[in-house]
Amino acid sequence: MRRDVFQAIADPTRREIIDVISRGSMNLNAVAETFDISRQAVSRHIKILTECGLVVIRQQGRERYCEARLKNLNEVSEWIDQYRKFWTGKLNALETHLSKPKRSKK
Question: Which intervals hold domain HTH arsR-type (predicted)?
């Protein structure tokens, strides 16, 4: 099953895993040691992150290393940008409207 990046970032633990791994390649045990959850739970989160293409597992000898592939977060950035542009336009229009001198009614 192919998941999307929005599913990956929806969970705070996965966001934290992305943050930890983005600082440098780490083996699975080292990633698991940074969290107060079981290694199995961390492995499930990493599996979802790999399905989303945000993490790649590289085998080196007997160790498996996690590497961040943050390029796929561009999809999230582009999605957010459309709303940023929309709301920036709306707020600028509101500011223009509110800054106009008030006309008194007679």
Answer: 1-88
Burial of 27 (0-12, 13-18, 19+ CB in 10 A): middle
In whole angstroms, give the CA distance from residue 102 to residue 106.
13
Q: Which CATH class is domain 5-72?
A: mainly alpha
The pair phi, psi for residue 65, each rounded to 5°, is -110, 140
Q: Please, are residues 2 and 51 in contact by the beta-carbon 8 Å criterion?
A: yes
For the chain, the domains span 5-72
pLDDT digit string, tens, across residues 53-103: 999 999 989 999 999 998 888 888 888 999 999 999 999 999 999 998 887
